[in-house]
Amino acid sequence: MERNQSKHCLIEFAASIIGARGANLDEGKSEQENQAKEPLEKAPSLKPGGQDVPKDAASSSPASNSGSGESNSSSSEPASAGRKERPVQEQKIDGMMLTGYFPTPQSKLIYVLKQFKITDLLLVFIPVAFYAASKEMHALEFFASCLGILPLAGLMGRATEYLSDRVGDAIGALLNATFGNACEFIIALAALRAGYDDVVKASITGSIIGNILLVLGASMLAGGIKYPTQSFNRIAASTSATLLALAAISLMVPSIFHHFTKSPGNEEELAMGISVVLFLTYILSLIFSLKTHKHLYVREADSSTEEAIGVKHWGTKLSTGVLLVCTLLVVVLSEFLVHGVEKVATEWHINKIFIGVILVAVVGNAAEHSTAIYMAMRNKMDLALNIALGSGAQIALLIAPALVFVSFIIGKPMNLYFSEFEVMAITVSVIILGYVTNDGECNWLEGVQLLAVYAILGTAFFYM
């Protein structure tokens, strides 16, 4: 009777770890058949007295091997000698991580919380932003909204990446196109509705130069400190650089048109025509990267990638929920942010162009910053480059045209006439990008050079 109770407890404990609830195993089967169905080799066993013992110790006990006597017990000692068994609690955690099954909601919540990054601590500024908005504390409202959006942008990016890796190339591309830079789009849309066209254009400029100079520069610096030389696919990098050069041209043409044409009233129609061309180019670039030349953009959802993103065992439902909740919060915080722009610019003597180019752009690109840098530190420079340049190209070829389309829909047409300095900043960034990526290799000094250009441009925008 005690032997049957021991075997029954062993079956229930292993089934609880792998989630095999309700398994109907016959007690009359041999112990060898039951052990073959246990996926975790180091699952603990229970003695009749209720004490936890290692599995191999249980298999050598008289209770599990009747008639074998002392010979079996002594023969198993050398195999287990020198091997220190880990605590049962650690074995349970490993089992949950391996199978993705968590016996209680509390264990699932604890594990998910361990996947959070340091930047997620900034989530505490979300209620601060709500409080500041209710009290009309505009400066606190603006900065708390910026800090609150930072972790939300990261969570949205991580959830999007997780879902994209599991729904196939076509739907994954659609998800990336929709939510990959959703934070930047939401902030710009709020500014557009408020009539801050200059902030919208500045945020577009800041996102492009931020991804080229800040994100890629920091990635090259961080990766180059650990690896003297890192290599990447030169053809893929050249393609992304060419798309960004197209973005520079698309912004340069309206500026020249504004100064030399005698019909400035046609600037909105010109913006619509350019936006259609950019949007079609983006669609064709997706076909290039996902269909005809997808071997240049190979990306596997391995464990290190998920570790960098922080979405191990999130699951599709959790990722979808995180994406929707974060999107709604970003919409609200973006309204708070835009509401405080005017007051901050006046009270702190900061021009709105600097706010859009530097502050808003850095907030919107938070997800790309951390992930690209981490990938470069893991010597995955191809992936870091694709994240940085791919996001910049998406801003120029998708987000900017989409904002123009929306501006016509809401009755506030926006042109693509950027200031001369904004056009110069994007052009300079694209030029130095070509020099850095033309050989298919990078080092930490090239990262410093990109960061230096970003610092110079940021200083100039501050004093404009």
Which features does this protein show?
single chain; about 475 residues; mainly alpha; A middle domain of Talin 1; two-stranded antiparallel ribbon; 20 helices
What would you say this structure looks like, in words?
There is one protein chain. 72% of the residues lie in helices and 2% in strands. It folds into 2 domains: 2-98, no CATH class; 125-462, NCX, central ion-binding region (A middle domain of Talin 1, Up-down Bundle), CATH 1.20.1420. It contains 20 helices and 4 strands. The strands form 2 sheets. Strands 1-2 form a two-stranded antiparallel ribbon. The chain is mainly alpha-helical.
**Structural class of the helices, strands and pairings?**
mainly alpha
Which architecture name of the largest domain does CATH use? Up-down Bundle
Q: Going by CATH, what is the homologous superfamily of the largest domain?
A: NCX, central ion-binding region
Radius of gyration: 28 Å
Q: Can you give the helix content as a percent range? A: over 70%
Order of helices and strands: HHEEHHHHHHHHHEHHHHHHHHEH
- Cα-to-Cα separation, first versus last residue: 86 Å
Q: How are strands sequenced across the largest beta sheet?
A: 1-2
Shape type: globular
Instruction: Enumerate how many helices there are, as a single number.
Output: 20
Q: Outline the biggest β-sheet.
A: 2 strands, antiparallel
Query: What count of domains describes the coordinates?
Result: 2
Enter the CATH topology name of the largest domain: A middle domain of Talin 1
Overall mean pLDDT: 75
Poorly predicted ranges: 17-91
Task: Report the strand count.
Answer: 4
The fraction of residues in strands falls at under 5%
Write down the CATH class of the largest domain: Mainly Alpha
